[in-house]
Amino acid sequence: MTIATTEFIGLARDTALSQGVADACFVTVPHPMGMTPVADIKEKAEKAFPDILKAATEWKPVAKLPPLKPVYPAERLELKGTVEDINRQLYASGFSLGLPVIPPTPESVATMLKGTNRKPDEVLGMIPPRMGALTVELVAIHAVMAGCKPEYMPVLIAALEGLLDPKANWRGATTTTATTSFLVIVNGPIVDEIGIASRQGAAGSSHHANASIGYAINLIAEVVGGSRPPSPDKSTLGGPGDFVCWIFGENEDALPKGWEPFHVDRGFRREDSVVTVMGIYPPVDQIDHWSATPEEHINWWAHLVTPLLSIGGPAWITQMEQPHIVGLGPEHAQLLAGAGFDKEQFRKAFWEKARIPLSAWPKGSPNIDLLKKRLGPVTPDTLIPITFKPEDFLIVIAGGSGKHSHFFPPFPGCFPVSKLVKK
Amino acid sequence: MKISRIWKKLVIFLLSTVFLAIPGTTLSEEGNQRWEVLDPQGVIKIEPMEINPHPSTLEGKTVLLRWNGKHNGDRFLERVAELLRQKVKDVNIIYSWEFSPETVDPISGSQERSMELMKKLAALKPDLVIGSQAD
């Protein structure tokens, strides 16, 4: 039996359904539970108790799952009207995000499929929370809708395969109350081959490949995966990352001498084309116009990016086990490398310094006891790092000229996954 | 020379007639345009999972209370436990967070972690699990 509040009962039902449970036992209590005085919580429990007792001994499942349909080929829909009309109809059916889409005609989808050697009936996986079966044909449908070119298909498929890896925690990132997005980093020759932006303003607008691939990923997440607000996407506010995810190529030309590209650090060959994905909280812009030495620069990093910013949520210990991505701006990277710092020295110095005392955390956090188990005896003055080990700061050279770097904190349970781009 | 000019004019006139005869797409015609598009939603593919039947009574049974770490969920369940003990004879209560503190943290964790957690709790062989989602 699951007890959920009035605001979250929809998510609870959808989650049960997506696990194959057509009819689970729920008891609903008034929202909220968190940040509420204990006396009110006890009263809620007392009021709900008769329902809890009744459900405990009398509940029986009634609903059954609908029969499964074939996943391929996609059903054909007959629509009528102008392009604007078609857009309105697709939006009203829950088939778009509210931004314009290109109608996916059979002909345009067939052309899109020419961009990959993968068979259209291949199932890449089931997208949570709706558990929509994602075929290569369905990827092409969304690629058309988002305005992709056929040659973008291999990168789009690699990104989706990464996100479908259980380590990426697609479900958590798209149903949470937090403001989250996917981060997609592209490395290797494919960056220039298809025009993925990797320099000035790479993750921003006016870059066709980035924009359309990022849009297609989010269309798939919402339309095939069904993670739409207000439920099961429970974002308190949400953000533009729900339309087009964060996507850029590493600026490999700006790598300081002796620094390997991100994908090589991840175990690939330099000549490989690789896509790395991760579910993230909004990144932090680390502005440093002033530091003249690595020590000053790292000191600035350590005060700006504190553990509370990154891992202040309820799943604090989980996040301490997760890699965080440090998007070093080329100018900041040159400052470090010019003084003889390699990646290892930077990440270790940053990790050592970016700590705050345990007393900064709210006392209600259950994670304090868990932390004691991991770190041994701790006092309120014990300085807590962002991650358990410095190796979990992954470094990528991000963007063009300017005094800005970016820190990408992971959403709990979301680990980076890297996939080879296969044509 | 004169004849050639006349021919040219005639050809231009005929071509113009042909082009003018082809109707341009008017707004009303565009509004009636029929489209065949492929369904972008795809189909759901879920393996059904059955839930064990609930016991007909809780007397002498074991009830496992599962808290996911969200604020106050434990306090809600603690009050439920007090009421169960008052109303139900010989009920045995297990608090998941006392039995296995590490199961508190994986909010929004992966499917893998959820399965690990479920196995750990199922090994206790409870007759009923009551979970609080809080928030």
Explain this structure to me?
The complex is a heterodimer of chains A (423) and B (135). Chain A is of the alpha/beta class and 423 residues long. Chain A contains 16 helices and 15 strands. In chain A, helix 1 (9-18) links the parallel strand 1 (2-5) and strand 2 (26-29). In chain A, helix 4 packs across helix 5 (136-146), helix 6 crosses helix 9 and helix 11 crosses helix 15 (343-353). Chain A starts with a strand and ends with a strand. The relative contact order of chain A is 0.12. With 135 residues, chain B is of the alpha/beta class. In chain B, 41% of the residues lie in helices and 15% in strands. Chain B is built from 5 helices and 4 strands; from the N terminus they run ααββαβααβ. Chain B has helices at 2-21, 27-31, 73-87, 96-99, 111-122; strands spanning 34-38, 62-67, 92-95, 128-132. Chain B has a 3-stranded parallel sheet with strand order 3-2-4. Chain B is elongated. The N and C termini of chain B lie far apart (92 Å). Mean pLDDT of chain B is 80; it is low at 16-25.
Biggest sheet record of chain A: 4 strands, mixed
Question: Which two chains share the most extensive interface?
Answer: A-B, 108 and 66 residues
Oligomer: heterodimer
- How far from one another are the termini of chain A? 47 Å
Structural class of the helix and strand makeup of chain B? Answer: alpha/beta
Describe the sheet with the most strands of chain B: 3 strands, parallel
| Secondary structure: helix percent of chain B | 40-55%
Q: Which value, in Å, is the CA radius of gyration of chain A? A: 23 Å
Low-confidence stretches of chain A: none
Strand order of the largest sheet of chain B: 3-2-4
What is the mean pLDDT of chain B?
80
Please tell me what the overall shape of chain B is: elongated
Tally the beta strands of chain A. 15
Number of strands of chain B: 4
Uncertain runs of chain B: 16-25
